[in-house]
Write a structure and sequence with these properties.
Layout (H helix, E strand, L loop, with lengths): L3 H21 L12 H17 L7 H33 L6 H19 L2 H24 L2
């Protein structure tokens, strides 16, 4: 059932996914092709906001902050997994793996590498502030727009 809280949470996390993606781009090696990197992460943020944060809104401010943090954590985990899968498929097309098990294991190695690249203070601060804003905005929407 669509609600205002789901919509606001989805928009907030989509914006957060896009902004953080744009701030991660300079941290990657020069010459990296990004394609739809930012838009894909914004779409993942939209889904996480709708499914994780929006459906739990309306339970109070402390729960809202927790929901925002949970949604942002889900956004980061899913985005890392999806981006690692994309990179693994690209590497598999260049025949970098000996078999499917090695390719599957590489997903997690690549995701850990990407997580290490994004684990900088500015990116983590953006994620934290975005999580707080998302939780509070979705709580406000749940209380005022029924």
């Amino acid at each position: 059932m669509p609600t205002a809280a789901k919509l606001f949470a989805a928009i907030c996390l989509a914006a957060l996914g896009y902004v953080v993606s744009e701030s991660i781009k300079p941290l990657m090696p020069e010459g990296t092709g990004f394609g739809i990197f930012s838009l894909l992460n914004a779409g993942i943020g939209f889904l996480c906001g709708w499914l994780v944060v929006g459906k739990r809104a309306g339970r109070g401010v402390s729960a809202a902050i927790s929901n925002g943090l949970t949604g942002t954590f889900a956004l980061v985990c899913v985005a890392l997994f999806v981006q690692a899968c994309v990179k693994m498929v690209d590497m598999a097309m260049h025949r970098r793996f000996d078999g499917p098990v090695e390719a599957f294991a590489a997903i997690f190695e690549i995701a850990i590498g990407f997580g290490g690249v994004m684990a900088t203070v500015p990116v983590l601060l953006q994620l934290l502030i975005g999580a707080l804003i998302t939780g509070i905005v979705s709580e406000y929407a749940a209380r005022n727009y029924r």
